[in-house]
Design a protein that fits this description.
The structure is a homodimer. Chain A is built from 14 helices and 27 strands. By secondary structure, chain A is α+β, with helices and mostly antiparallel strands.
Chain lengths: 492, 492
Amino acid sequence: MAKNFTSREEDYSAWYNELVAKADLAEHSAVRGCMVIKPYGYAIWEKMQAQLDKMFKETGHENAYFPLLVPKSLFEAEEKNAEGFAKECAVVTHYRLKTDPNDKTKLIVDPDAKLEEELIIRPTSEAIIWNTYKGWIESYRDLPLLINQWANVMRWEMRTRLFLRTAEFLWQEGHTAHATKDEAIAESEQMINIYSEFAQNFMAMPVIMGKKSDSERFAGADNTLTIEALMQDGKALQAGTSHFLGQNFAKAFDVQFTNKEGKKDFVWATSWGVSTRLIGGLIMTHSDDDGLVLPPNLAPIQVVIVPIHKGEEQLDQISEKVKGIKSLLEAKGISVKFDNRDTYKPGYKFAEWEFKGVPVRIAMGPRDLENGTVEIARRDTKEKTSHNIEGVADIIEALLTDIQDNLYNKALNYRNEHITEANSWDEFKELLETKTGFISAHWDGTEETEEKIKQETKATIRCIPLDAKEEAGICVFSGNPSTKRVLFAKAY
Amino acid sequence: MAKNFTSREEDYSAWYNELVAKADLAEHSAVRGCMVIKPYGYAIWEKMQAQLDKMFKETGHENAYFPLLVPKSLFEAEEKNAEGFAKECAVVTHYRLKTDPNDKTKLIVDPDAKLEEELIIRPTSEAIIWNTYKGWIESYRDLPLLINQWANVMRWEMRTRLFLRTAEFLWQEGHTAHATKDEAIAESEQMINIYSEFAQNFMAMPVIMGKKSDSERFAGADNTLTIEALMQDGKALQAGTSHFLGQNFAKAFDVQFTNKEGKKDFVWATSWGVSTRLIGGLIMTHSDDDGLVLPPNLAPIQVVIVPIHKGEEQLDQISEKVKGIKSLLEAKGISVKFDNRDTYKPGYKFAEWEFKGVPVRIAMGPRDLENGTVEIARRDTKEKTSHNIEGVADIIEALLTDIQDNLYNKALNYRNEHITEANSWDEFKELLETKTGFISAHWDGTEETEEKIKQETKATIRCIPLDAKEEAGICVFSGNPSTKRVLFAKAY
């Protein structure tokens, strides 16, 4: 299957698009910018969801569901938020179709079914949720309110890319309400830490936690925390954000509570989200010129077993052995597929599962039957070894851990090698052209400088790392004084 | 909490609405007909989802995700389907808002951002999915295609009711493609059986499986199978449907495959779905004048433990004992909440958890501490008993099974007592007025008669039961000959 497949070096963007298609992850639909997530791609999302949902619940959050549509007047209420999303909104204006009087086989919008007030398909749900919270919060006893929603959202993006940027995408959005500013800030920090932990331990994708600059902040937030990952082509990917919303939405929707002292105050808020974009990040962190590479902790199929046989009888003998191995692996919580399709040859199956990134392949042929062995191949390094069937489950279990660690370390090394300090404007520009990756540079803290750098180089401030140390320096662009390095990169 | 709560006898409809609100299940939103599903209500949906998803996967189905929006031209393709849903469609016509030039704080729809083709928010996804399947199916090797989607859908209903009928609702929709007619029919039967099993074993809600009459069939289907439940007020609820779609969608979207003999043929299809409506059915099957009653198999909290204490020290002693009980129960997979809030008194907590339908309540007070006992109360019968702490986990486990069975049997008895044969038109009308429930009657098989009965009595044919026996008779309305009894009822 890796034939007719563009290599990363040839054209990274074509490589990505072809990989998503050939690995059966997703495809474009008949609706501009909206994707179909195919079963194999969706199975990765289900793994991500299950783990994140567990982490959210362990930290006291509950799920709920709020309407898809937002009345325009509610959408307007928080001004900055509205401004930030108004230009990419799908708008519902009518609620009925009727038969076209000129062509009975066609439907037209019924002009008599025009809505009094237009409805927006949620680009994010702060407005509808805070309008709802107004009815839920009266006193400090109702706080904190820790709610998450799994949902589809829509932003009318002009340039779309499967998983990375689509008009409709799936995500989770947490929306919490707190009695104090400190509590809300702590919540926003807790959630970016959860995202970071998830990215590192499950996606095997190292991330840098940081704060967004004012211009890159979420529309309506007082502060935005982000996790930033580095893709193999040296471009950054914003993988998740957590916002401290201050009292902005509480004020816009008049959500006040009575505190323990009997005084009224506006509620403090956070929101935080990750989306199907993570699948794009997963692909671009690990995959290679032979297709997808999946970390075991998120692989829908962790182990595939392929029989190599001539005739029914041999297949029966192999199947018998495989049954035992499969149940031992499953008892350890490992997901196993026995690919006994008779419509495809072993070579085809090998190529298919390799392309689909299954971490471990077990093959069993006539000689293995004789010797009581199997051949084990790992997807990440392509290493193949032969093992006795006895004890194979323990070996596979250890191997999966090893693959998970190896993928993380490889990505971490790459990322660390691609954080480079630039101390002059020429250095900055040259790094962007030659080495790519994150550029750690002093910045004078003004939006003006940020904007000029972006215009000249397309690089943006990805974040001000949380662990950035205080260090006197001069801005790489303006020469003005600076106290900290920030990370620049071209980004998805 | 059961104060200020309308009883079922007083006003069943008010009872339902108040229950949904007071048990914190859902509420109306700012968008006409769209609901907010609150955390406790959503937790029930999550339990339903988890179980159904398991059953779907065990029968070989995979999940995927298709776009929310359907281009009008695709929507039109299957004529009957389009006709069936055209009158209740939310239509997206624009993709951008802009600042109102007359009032800078307001937004208006940008007339320059009008879509060339209108987009419909999916009322169901056959059109977009079959347009996609066209690219996925070439040969018999690609079949069967067994896909399910968990999604939100929208139907612009005029009269809405929380859970039972809302403009937006959550559901799952299965869409399968098969090489033969028989296989597709078998799939549609398998899925209605899965729904029936789920309703009976998890919801403790008895259902009758049957076939819909032509006029009640899904728009675009050749046959619709249904499960019909009976609510406590004698009205029926259609709880799930499974459709054999013939080759209608394959023909509308030109989806052909090459069979083993190398010949081309149109693909055979099914679709099947259940929705958040099930939560409405769950409520109306078991709940009483003291609030919600939940079957243990779907209760988000199966056991609540309430301490009755004076002062911190007693609470500490009780907490110590509770910790042991809780972990024993959790080891058995039972979900337990220890309600140690210090902001509410035990009486308030008792009333709250009773209203929320938690199947088992354990209370522990000072005397229990002395005696090494707990008080166990079951929600369904209100029975209270005292037990030694030792062995209490086994007792609770058995009790949960007993409650599940008791609820099912109670509902089954009620349902069976409310299936009555009518052999004359007068009998039919009288039964509808006095006894309500399902009326088993002969029908001449014509749409005309069905329509007249509906107009005169509001009763519809709920289904032609799959196990209806052949029996010569005369139609209760027209007097024409009939070979089978069908079930009539007023319905939600």
